[in-house]
Amino acid sequence: MGSFSSFILPLGIKPFFAQAGLGWCAASYNGETFVLNEVAVESGLAAKMVRKYSTKALFVNNVALSDTWYVTDEESNVSPSAGVRAGEGAVAFASVGDGKLGYIGNVNAEHGSNVAVLAMCGLL
């Protein structure tokens, strides 16, 4: 559904999001297990989304937890040495002006990410 994270160079992420007033920048690139962050997603919408899924993703940093739709699972398969830092997210949705801007870091078009795109577009 989207392939932004597969084709943008990591150094291009920060200036892209800066145009929207967001401080997001490229962070880690890992395969992990994600769980839905119910603090960030309205309960009616959360009920229609995938609760947990695994994917390889390019994370962005400096993302508020309230804007991070999926967080790393405690049992994620990421190696301890690659530990994900606070503020990183692979699926984010933030208010920008009168609208919203979403980011899906998944590089392999997993079902959970496709559902997140539909949710961001108001199609669920």
Query: Biggest β-sheet: count, sense, barrel?
Result: 5 strands, antiparallel
Q: Report the order of strands and helices.
A: HHEHEEEEH
What is the helix fraction of residues, given as a range?
10-25%
Q: How many domains, as an integer?
A: 1
- Helix/strand-derived class? alpha+beta
* Mean pLDDT score: 86
Number of strands: 5
Q: Rg from C-alpha positions?
A: 13 Å
Kindly report how far apart the N and C termini lie.
Answer: 15 Å
Q: Which residues sit in consecutive blocks of at least 5 with pLDDT less than 50?
A: 78-84
Question: Helical stretch count?
Answer: 4
Description:
With 124 residues, the chain is an alpha+beta fold. It has one domain (4-120). It has helices at 4-7, 10-18, 43-46, 111-120; strands spanning 25-36, 52-61, 68-72, 91-96, 99-104. Strands 2-1-3-4-5 form a five-stranded antiparallel beta sheet. The longest helix is centred in the C-terminal third of the chain and has 10 residues, at 111-120. The two termini are 15 Å apart.
Structure summary:
This protein is an alpha+beta fold. The chain has one domain.
Give the secondary structure arrangement, pairings included.
Blueprint: H1 4-7, H2 10-18, E1 25-36, H3 43-46, E2 52-61, E3 68-72, E4 91-96, E5 99-104, H4 111-120
Antiparallel strand pairs: 1-2, 1-3, 3-4, 4-5
Which short descriptors sum up this protein?
124 residues; alpha+beta; 22% helix; globular; single chain
